[in-house]
Design brief:
178 residues; alpha/beta; Rossmann fold; five-stranded parallel β-sheet; two-stranded antiparallel ribbon; 6 helices; 9 strands; binds adenosine monophosphate
Length: 178
Amino acid sequence: MKIDRLKASITTVSGYPKPGIEFRDITSLLLEAEALRECVLRMAAPLRGQPIDKIVAIEARGFIFGAALAMELGCGLVLARKPGKLPRATRKASYVLEYGEDSLHIHTDAIREGERVLLVDDLIATGGTADAVVSLVDAFAATLCGAVFAVALEDLPGMARLRERGIAVHYVMSFKGG
Ligand code: AMP
């Protein structure tokens, strides 16, 4: 499938969830079997053959691509979840939102020191969410071998922010405007 066809499977919703935002809705991509498969295969392509122990996927849409990639690349799956969702002891990283603060949590036994992990989410915009998870992975003394997204918003600083930290960033589709 050509990349333009894949991009066309994403629906853009202007003004959601608030004025000025061009929301890139991946649920329409998920509806199309071929588009979903193509997206996952393209996300996996640059990472094949690399030693990766675990994928760290970000709640909630990151779980969809994270699980598919874990199966495709043959590695385990770690869930980075919102507060109050994980039943056992966790490590957390807080990050600043437009109004207030949020945090993501990972079970303390989910990643071992020295493991090689790959960060996965559906989309990177400002990079605030991914940046927090990078810090969380650092706190486990694991090695981050890259970050992969289905969609990158190229006018926003997320990709540069991760690259400045020395992280290899991969994405399948990019869009202008955030
Ligand atoms: P950020 O922390 O700004 O990089 O935002 C990343 C998270 O917010 C991702 O998990 C996305 O699901 C969601 N997100 C941010 N901006 C958009 C957008 N324009 N369209 C769809 N999802 C978005």
